Amino acid sequence: MVSNGCMPNSFTYSSLMRGFFQTGQSQKAILLWKEMANNMRNEVCNSVLIHGLCEDGQLNEALIAWQQMLGRGYKPDVVAYSSMIHGLCNAGLVEQGLKLFNEMLCQEPEYQPDVITYNILFNVFCKQSSISLAIDHLNRMLDWGCDPDSVTCDIFLRSLREKLDPPQDGREFLNELVVRLFKQQRIVGASIIVEVMLQKFLPPKASTWTRVVQELCKPKKVRAAIDKC
Q: Where would one find coiled-coil regions in this protein (predicted)?
């Protein structure tokens, strides 16, 4: 590219950095980041760097990059925040991770925690047998309009089976989650949970099936599905 006069932009650099991190060549990714001109370092490149360092277990280096990013006036995006929270929690610095999470809650909508951020906390709380705290954050996530995914389900199912005495299979828990989502007309999120339940051989209750069928068989949705076919 360079020899043909086509100068790479920040997205090109970030893609190459991501590739280096994914193939275990973190030093090459760091060197590439250092070689970039200051005006080409944007939020995307910083997020890739911080995510890669945290995934590689280089928390101190990630913290340095984080401080440098803030010092240059760049604002962390959801990926950067989530990566730092994950790195801090993995290092046992859960309180610092929660501090960053609470900081996210005070940001604009585009910087709010997503399901990946919440899953990081769910995993930490459940490993610490703090299932009630995980459920509190699950309720907060739902109240903020963020839907759980299959990873969320797996985290809670594993905890209910391994951390409770007597253990629970999680069917009741997921069924209530489906009902709650349907009541709020969050059909996509509810459908994901139903699919997980079927995959885990935890069929929803008959009353829940009624809600599912009624929602899926609404005339407009049936007509749309037929048109799509």
A: none
